[in-house]
Amino acid sequence: MLSHNEIEEMEGLANLSKLTKLSLSHNKIRELPSLEVHRELQELRLSDNHIQTIPESISFNQGLKIVDFAKNMISSWRYNLSPSEIISTLTILFGNM
Q: Which of 6, 21, 35, 96 could cysteine-pair with 74, CB 3.0–4.6 Å?
């Protein structure tokens, strides 16, 4: 858990391929990088950041059960399916544009 820091970029995660939970809420992250290498990721918490776009690459994380993007600046979802069709429990709209 790396919440409540001044983190601006999600970097240095590539070697953590067995990562199952990632919490980076309450930071200053603007961009969500590809998380394709994290096939075992089940929980992703990124609320209260500055994220504007959710990339299509998140669809490769089929094991995601909880995704929290609340209180960001999301105005674009780059995927043809709706969020609920991809992830079983998704908090994405609360506090977004």
A: 96
